[in-house]
């Protein structure tokens, strides 16, 4: 072509013949046309072709779907284009690709498989729901989520009565473990109730239950021990259902009736529960609950219950503890109390004598001596022991209980008409002391009611009505209020 062009130009320059010149011009025109045609055939428009390993990946160019790989001759404008390639179970590939002005641009891409790991989720309490990056997952904790792609996820664990537990979890290994300790909304609730009413056995049992679920075993044992102490000090005025609930909780914890501890943790807790029951509770009642809940947990296992045997077992446990603490007066008193429950007065008296030698001013020793004298029919000695206990006791609440017991003892003597003038003033004085030492207004109203009944019995109607009016103003107990209203309505003052 270039030689043809050079020849034509030479002919035009050298020739003077018009005919020759016309021929040269035709040759040049033909050259231009042929060159244009040939150049148009050689320059192809810009395009994009993509192949992947493995094939079948979804291709997006400038955020528009163009097909599945392999794709060929995608018509695009010259310049940079956003290319995104996605395939299930493979990492996403995305990049800005420059496309030239002429001809196709080819991409060959190897897609990397997505790396996955297992996420093990354990929560306290168990049986909680799991939500991963806004998607509810099947199963309750403890649960393992299989084949979770590597990445960062928002994990939320929820359970009824507990605050939601939230955390960002990064999956970057074959196995990831997540331990979640959910904060109970009920713990703060029961702690507030106990602050307002420390004598509430039910609240302490419920709080201990929630502490156990949270694996705060020391706090749970502490609450159970405090509840047993309250029962021991106030057993005559506590709701029997509350006491039953406490021993139910002790039995459930001891046998592991609800899922709160591993086998090793339960073996460590059982001796501690036995110890607090031995020291402060009724071991026979506890063993009865253990047998009941044990049968429910394992019907094939035999649980036998014998109150006398249970008391003897408690005595043996305390005697082992006494070998380590031979001068522990409270232990001696507790052993004597258990012997007395088994009607072994001789052994009970022996341990009380040992306690009396160690601490003659301990009011609990005199209280137990009073119980022994009553069993022996020595009522005068029993009264003297009770009076000594009331004088020695420094705890105002317990001293109030002792005055109340003495008032009841003196009232029993009013059957003898000749002794009324002697015992009636004593009974009234003891009731008045018990009312002053009451730990709360409701207990004071209960004691006022019993004193009012004594006044009515002895014919002092006006004093009784005064007490009924006080009860009506201060008591929140519906039963006491109804009794007070009835007596006020059907009684007249004598003044």
What would you note in describing this structure?
With 495 residues, this protein is α+β, with helices and mostly antiparallel strands. It is 57% helix and 18% strand. The protein has 18 helices and 14 strands. Strands 3-2-5-6 form a four-stranded antiparallel β-sheet, with no helix packed on it. A four-stranded antiparallel β-sheet has the order 10-9-12-13, with no helix packed on it. Strands 4-1-7 form a three-stranded mixed β-sheet, with no helix packed on it. A hairpin with a 6-residue loop joins β5 and β6 (93-99). The mean pLDDT is 82.
Descriptive key words:
495 residues; alpha+beta; Immunoglobulin-like; 4 domains; four-stranded antiparallel beta sheet; 18 helices; elongated
Topology:
Blueprint: H1 2-14, H2 18-42, E1 47-53, E2 58-61, E3 64-68, E4 71-75, E5 79-86, E6 93-99, E7 104-110, E8 116-124, E9 129-132, E10 135-137, E11 143-149, E12 151-158, E13 165-171, E14 175-181, H3 185-196, H4 201-213, H5 217-234, H6 240-255, H7 263-280, H8 283-297, H9 307-324, H10 329-341, H11 345-358, H12 363-376, H13 379-392, H14 396-412, H15 420-436, H16 441-457, H17 461-474, H18 478-490
Helix pairs in contact: 1-2, 3-4, 4-5, 4-6, 5-7, 6-7, 6-8, 7-9, 8-9, 9-10, 10-11, 10-12, 11-12, 12-13, 13-14, 14-15, 15-16, 16-17, 17-18
Outline of the structure:
With 495 residues, the chain is α+β, with helices and mostly antiparallel strands. The protein is 57% helix and 18% strand. It has helices at 2-14, 18-42, 185-196, 201-213, 217-234, 240-255, 263-280, 283-297, 307-324, 329-341, 345-358, 363-376, 379-392, 396-412, 420-436, 441-457, 461-474, 478-490; strands at 47-53, 58-61, 64-68, 71-75, 79-86, 93-99, 104-110, 116-124, 129-132, 135-137, 143-149, 151-158, 165-171, 175-181.
């Amino acid at each position: 072509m270039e030689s043809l062009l050079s020849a034509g130009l030479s002919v035009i320059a050298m020739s003077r013949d018009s005919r020759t010149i016309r021929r040269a011009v035709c040759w040049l025109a033909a050259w231009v046309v042929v060159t244009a045609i040939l150049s148009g055939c050689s320059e192809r428009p810009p395009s994009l072709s993509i192949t992947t390993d493995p094939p079948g990946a979804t291709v997006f160019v400038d955020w528009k779907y163009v097909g599945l790989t392999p794709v060929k001759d995608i018509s695009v404008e010259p310049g940079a284009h956003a290319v995104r390639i996605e395939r299930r179970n493979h990492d996403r590939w995305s990049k800005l690709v420059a496309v030239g002005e002429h001809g196709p641009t080819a991409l060959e891409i190897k897609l990397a498989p997505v790396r996955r790991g297992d996420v093990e989720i354990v929560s306290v309490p168990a049986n909680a729901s799991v939500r991963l990056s806004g998607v509810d997952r099947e199963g309750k904790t403890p649960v393992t989520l299989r084949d979770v792609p590597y990445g960062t996820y928002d994990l939320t664990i929820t359970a009824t009565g507990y605050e939601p537990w939230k955390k960002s979890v990064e999956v970057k290994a074959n196995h990831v473990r997540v331990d979640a300790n959910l904060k109970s909304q009920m713990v703060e609730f029961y702690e507030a109730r106990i602050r307002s009413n420390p004598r509430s056995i039910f609240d302490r049992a419920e709080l201990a239950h929630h502490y156990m679920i949270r694996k705060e075993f020391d706090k749970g044992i502490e609450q159970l021990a405090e509840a047993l102490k309250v029962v021991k000090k106030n057993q005559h005025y506590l709701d029997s259902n509350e006491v039953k609930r406490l021993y139910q909780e002790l039995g459930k914890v001891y046998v592991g009736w609800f899922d709160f501890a591993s086998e090793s943790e339960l073996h460590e807790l059982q001796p501690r529960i036995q110890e607090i029951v031995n020291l402060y509770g009724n071991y026979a009642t506890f063993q009865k609950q253990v047998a009941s809940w044990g049968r429910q947990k394992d019907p094939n296992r035999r649980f036998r219950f014998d109150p006398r045997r249970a008391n003897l077992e408690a005595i043996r446990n305390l005697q082992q503890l006494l070998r380590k603490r031979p001068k522990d007066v409270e232990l001696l008193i507790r052993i004597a109390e258990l012997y007395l429950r088994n009607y072994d007065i001789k052994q009970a008296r022996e341990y009380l004598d040992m306690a009396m030698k160690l601490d003659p001013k301990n009011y609990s020793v005199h209280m137990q001596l009073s119980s022994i004298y009553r069993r022996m029919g020595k009522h005068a000695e029993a009264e003297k022991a009770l009076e000594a206990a009331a004088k020695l006791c420094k705890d105002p609440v317990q001293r109030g209980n002792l005055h109340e017991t003495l008032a009841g003892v003196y009232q029993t003597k009013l059957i003898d008409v000749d002794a009324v003038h002697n015992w009636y003033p004593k009974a009234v004085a003891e009731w008045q002391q018990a009312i002053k030492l009451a730990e709360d207004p409701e207990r004071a109203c209960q004691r006022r009611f019993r004193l009012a009944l004594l006044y009515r019995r002895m014919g002092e109607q006006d004093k009784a009505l005064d007490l009924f009016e006080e009860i009506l103003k201060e008591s929140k107990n519906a039963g006491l209020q109804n009794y007070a209203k009835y007596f006020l309505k059907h009684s007249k003052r004598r003044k």
